[in-house]
Amino acid sequence: MSNAARTPTDVYELGDVPELGVVPQKMLAQVIRAERFGEPRDAFKLETVSLPALGPRDVLVYVMAAGVNYNNIWAAMGIPIDVIKTRQKKGELPRGMDAGAAASEPAGWDFHVGGSDGSGVVWAVGAAVTSVRVGDEVVVHCGMWDPDDPWVVAGKDPMFAPSQKIWGYESNWGSFAQYAKVQDHQCLPKPPHLTWEEAAAYMLVAATAYRMLHGWSPNTIAAGDPILVWGGAGGLGSMAIQIARAAGARPIAVVSGDSKNEFCTKLGAVGVIDR
Question: Which is higher by pLDDT, 11 or 194?
Answer without folding.
Answer: 194
